[in-house]
Write a structure and sequence with these properties.
Blueprint (H helix, E strand, L loop, with lengths): L5 E6 L13 H19 L3 H5 L3 E12 L8 E12 L2 E9 L5 E13 L4 E3 L31 E6 L13 H10 L3 H4 L4 E8 L8 E7 L15 E9 L5 E9 L1
Length: 255
């Protein structure tokens, strides 16, 4: 029987590190996505398993809290598990630790299963059995709506390239995060790192689209993770430049 808790180790490569030799946030997100996908496959719920039933997974929300950015050469262990189900949403949580067993990251996420032909979400309870769940949250979050970006202080355009696409042929979830981070003012982007990330995925982008990454902030400082140093908070929005459709809404806090 497949374990509800799934573990996998990841060495941090040079190409996954930033100019300071620390793992990029997007690299950490890719580890989470890879572990989640491999665990789903072991449970019989991979994207390809669902395709056979004319369904697919769609990521709805993410909340990631980084305790420490590990360095190039370190080896991390990702632990993940299905942590709940409610209505249209399935929850999956994560804990990431270093070689000494110290927690470097915790995260929680919310997913939908969508009917490919009708483009409509399906009730999770009718598909995902309770036996596949461990009702434990690494990062408690009810996933309330993120604030709307009221004022645009900075805006950067990006074109969707083939390397941005996932198995569903739309932009991979980590790419939206990278676009959002790039819009933060240079003095923050080059001297600090994001320690808290919340994302709401609202619509899809496809090859050839042009998107606008918008940001506002910094807002009033907030306490850092585990009561650490105050952080600078930014609100983000990514929209389709042609249609104006909101693709993603984010909130980031920087150490």
């Amino acid at each position: 029987m497949t374990e509800i808790l799934f573990r996998k180790q990841y060495p941090i490569h040079t190409y996954e590190s930033d100019s300071g030799g620390r793992a990029r946030l997007v690299s950490l997100l890719n580890y989470l996505q890879d572990a989640a996908g491999e665990h789903a496959a072991a449970l019989g719920w991979s994207v390809t398993d669902l395709w056979k039933r004319k369904m697919t997974w769609v990521l709805s929300r993410y909340h990631v809290s980084v305790r420490r950015y590990p360095a190039w050469g370190e080896r991390l262990e990702v632990v993940t598990w299905p942590s709940g189900r409610h209505g249209l949403f399935a929850l999956r949580d994560f804990e990431v630790s270093d070689g000494g067993g110290n927690t470097v990251l915790v995260a929680t996420s919310s997913w939908m299963i969508v009917d490919i032909e009708r483009k409509q979400p399906l009730k999770i309870e009718s598909i995902l059995e309770a036996d596949f769940l461990l009702e434990k949250r690494s990062l408690p979050d009810a996933f309330a709506s993120l604030p709307v970006l009221a004022a645009v202080e900075r805006e950067i355009p990006f074109r969707v390239e083939t390397g941005h696409l996932d198995l569903n042929k739309h932009v991979n979830n980590a790419v939206y995060v990278q676009w959002a981070l790039e819009a933060v003012p240079e003095d923050i982007l080059t001297r600090r790192r994001p320690v808290d990330l919340e994302v709401s995925y609202r619509a899809e982008a496809f090859y050839g689209d042009t998107v606008l990454s918008r940001v506002s902030g910094p807002l009033a400082s907030a306490p850092g993770p585990a009561g650490g140093s105050p952080t600078s908070v930014f609100l983000h929005q990514i929209v389709n430049s042609r249609t104006g459709v909101e693709l993603t809404r984010l909130r980031t806090a920087w150490e």
